[in-house]
Amino acid sequence: MIPLMRRNKYNARPTEYRGWLFGSKLEAEQAAELDVLQGCGKIRWWLRQVPLDLTEDDRYKLDFLVCDDVGNVYGLETKGYETPSWKRTKKLLMKYAPFEIKVVFKNKTILIEPECT
Fold first, then answer.
1. What residues contact 21, with CB distance under 8 A and at least 6 apart?
2. Alpha-carbon gap, residue 106 to 85, rounded angstroms
3. 15-112: which CATH topology?
4. Beta carbons of 50 and 61 less than 8 angstroms apart
5. Is the dihedral of CA 5, 65, 108, 86 positive or negative?
6. Continuous segment of H or E residues that includes residue 38
7. Could you read off the pLDDT of 5-63 as tens digits, one per residue?
């Protein structure tokens, strides 16, 4: 019997891609896009679910860590919409993240630039 893939509290549907289970369809689609970009040489590599220590008490898992074709490393997040929890995390990322983070929503992309890199 195959277990049912249940939606999470934000109504995201877990989606499988290349044998990995992603937290949402948008996240799985982003992984597929990263594979295409890697295949055509626009990025060197990417990792998924990378832990990031922001403060002693705040640890966050980035959806993706990406290295582009010239060696720049940046974080990549996928979000259906902005929740109060995400707004708090975004402030922490702006203050403590060691690199830029691109946030992909369904209809827009924003860039979080850290205060000091």
1. 5, 14, 15
2. 18
3. Trna Endonuclease; Chain: A, domain 1 (3.40.1350)
4. yes
5. positive
6. helix 25-39
7. 555 556 788 999 999 999 999 999 999 999 999 999 999 999 999 999 988 898 999 99
